[in-house]
Amino acid sequence: MTANDPETLAFYADEAVRYANQSQARAFDHLDAYLALLSPGARILELGCGGGDDTAHMLARGFDVAPTDGSPEIAAEAQKRLGIAVDVLQFEHIAADNAYDGVWASACLLHVPRAGLPAIISHINRALKPGGRFFASFKAGTAEGRDRFGRYFNYPSPQWLRQAYGEDRWHAIDIAALMGSGYDREPTEWLHVIATKRP
Q: Would you identify the CATH topology of the domain 6-197?
């Protein structure tokens, strides 16, 4: 998430313990499909790690993961659960250059205000090694807005996302639409994006 929306950050600060420790049956099909695109032991920057479920799964699969979250409260909860360092990182402060084989950003960039998303994606592109893979998921829509918890969402369409990503920066941008849910447990259309940096 980004500091540009204090209301969203305040929600995660207030709900950190509940959010990070929510008991919910998890399937890792999408994560496993993404990991299959990477070499064994690949270095992965995880953005918006939440409670650390995906981090734990990637570590168990033998990947070298750097988990981060934009909420200090959430990062602290994840660190307690994982037993490893979880850095507090706002998206706009990503400064790595040619450092990661992959970037995993599940259900977190959807909180970035539309006007700021292209710059964040540019930072992520720079952080990846040539040929690196970048996964992000978004709640689909046609206009930005807030959910019933007051959290900001950019609610993009596939066409809008392609423009925000900047197709000239990537070898390929693959977008899949599917139904699911989230913290609110409501039926949601999701867009899963895997972008591959030019070799």
A: Rossmann fold (3.40.50)
